[in-house]
Amino acid sequence: MMTFGTLSLVFLILAVVFVLKTINVVPQQHAWVVERLGKYHATLAPGLNIVIPFIDRIAYKHILKEIPLDVPPQVCITRDNTQLQVDGILYFQVTDPMRASYGSSNYLMAITQLAQTTLRSVIGKMELDKTFEERDHINTTIVNAIDESAANWGVKVLRYEIKDLTPPKEILHAMQAQITAEREKRALIAASEGRKQEQINIATGEREAAIARSEGEKQAEINRAQGAAAGILSIAEASAEAIRKTAAAIREPGGADAVNLKVAEQYVEAFAKIAKTGNTLIVPGNLADMSGMIASALQVVRQQNRPG
Predict the structure, then answer these.
(1) DSSP-based helix, strand, coil % in the chain, nearest 5
(2) pLDDT digits (tens, 9 = 90+) for 213-262
């Protein structure tokens, strides 16, 4: 037979259990789904919540944070019948805890399977080369396709990222050879462009040098012509000045006599030089003219030596 103390202890334990089952603290970014008598009753928000023990039951606990889901690698066949192993990761978030609890028996598996089937469908519409270039298109297509169906499961698909695209080894070697050939082609084109530009630069330099030389020669010719013209002009001016001075001297008293004397001297001197040339004796044709000229010169000398 139970004593009063034993009954008190039992009631105390039952009270503690009742209180623990009544008071529930939900962490931040979590949501707990409560069923009452086997039927959905409420979704507990973060904080302190009270439920009725033995009547209410916490059936599901969901995390409302963004969750990364690794999609297992799978082999896809491209449009040009090439096998391609694709590995990706999916990011999603539970937005409706009630639908996440009752919309699908396992929404994680449903999302994973839908991601794989959608990926195979998208890759099958593309050629191998395009799969490497259109990663963003593949990611966006998969997200849109999954998000439409995942709305019924209380899940929001945020993004899908392809981690790796692995073609067969034979295709990989062929792609590497193609890339090497393309790089060599670009190198040859760059080298030829360099040589072409070098020849253009050399031709341009030679043309500019030839133009500079011709301009220099032209300027030199102009300078020489100007110098020669200046020399001729100076000589002409000097000759003109000499003639003007001679004419002025002739107009002075005794000037004409001095001219006659100078002409006679030059005549005799020139005749003497001609007579000395070679072994032939040269005699003037008109000795009278010569003697008359000498007489005139002597007359001029006498007049100049005559005392005033």
Answers:
(1) 60, 20, 15
(2) 888 888 888 888 888 888 888 887 887 777 777 667 666 676 666 666 66
In angstroms and rounded to an integer, the radius of gyration of the C-alpha atoms of the chain is: 62
Paired strand residues for 58: 34
| Region class of 201: left (phi > 0), else alpha (psi between -120 and 50), else beta | alpha
**How many beta carbons lie within 10 A of that of residue 221, not counting itself?**
10
Distance CA(229)–CA(221), nearest Å, equals: 12
Helix ranges (H only) for 72-168 are: 97-102, 107-124, 128-133, 135-150
Strand partners, 31: 62
Q: Are strands 30-36 and 39-44 parallel, antiparallel or unpaired?
A: antiparallel
pLDDT digits (tens, 9 = 90+) for 88-104: 999 999 999 999 899 88
The angle formed by the CA atoms of residues 57, 60 and 63, to the nearest 5 degrees, is 140
> The whole model's pTM is what?
0.52
Query: Do the Cβ atoms of 147 and 158 come closer than 8 Å?
Result: no
Q: Which residues pair with 71 in a beta bridge?
A: 88
- The CA distances from residue 189 to 182, 185, 195, 196, 197, in Å, are 10, 6, 10, 10, 12
Please, is 161 exposed, middle or buried when counting C-beta atoms within 10 Å of its C-beta (0-12, 13-18, 19+)? middle
